[in-house]
Fold:
Amino acid sequence: MYQKEQDHPPLVELDKDHPGFRDKAYRQRRNLIAKIAYGYKKGGEIPSVEYTRDEHEMWSQVLILLFQLHNEHACQYFLDAKSLINLNDQKIPQLFKINVQLKQLTGFSMIPVGGLISPEHFLLNLADRKFCSTQYIRHYSSPLYTPEPDIIHELVGHAITLAHPFFSNLNYHFGLAARRAKPESFQRLIQAYWYTLEFGLVSENGNIKAYGAGLLSSIGEMPSYKNKAELLPFDLDKLSRTPFEPTDYQPSLFVAPSIYELENGLMEWLENFE
Ligand SMILES: [Fe+2]
Structure:
């Protein structure tokens, strides 16, 4: 028993600024859901989480708002991806059900993790077409924002995009680049992922649109980044050398001139990364 617990990282620890820090019931819930994820064995069945009525309610409220925001702010490939995958906007979907759809569309699958994992572990799994996903939902007091990735971010931001060949291919090539990357250059790869597939912007018909999962899953940041962030021209060398702070709105974002230049530029950069 003691040995078994040693195999797992410690259960969820919330920062004192976290919206759920003083909520004992929420902390217990997070621990329970983390334990379910730690029960997952590579190649085994994806464990389900029995969500509560309040959790489904939170999912539904946030999803309806996000889906409205996408009409104005999301790039065309994301809108296309939304029509490829069926996300129930009333109930939080189970990862194993999402995987049935994703595997048919692009070969990707979501695998559960109990909380934050190392960026190396995250990126290396992409080369196996596995996307590490949390299963808990944000604290009820903070529907606009979550300091860490929750199931809304994972499914709306990432599972939708992984249904589309444009995004799934780029994720896969980030994984291949991670396999080749020298330890001293790994941080550049992490930063490139952050400023593209997490927080990337692209110009479409003269309008700036979001393609990054972090923006596309944020009710607060998606409609406000144009006023709050400095918008910079797409430059992979520069963005891969730009540090980021994950727990706040982004002060700088990079805008690709077109989806084609983004795809070609990023693919070439990833294929030559070492
Ligand atoms: Fe993410």
Summary: The longest helix spans residues 53-73. The mean pLDDT is 92. DSSP finds 13 helices and six strands in the chain.
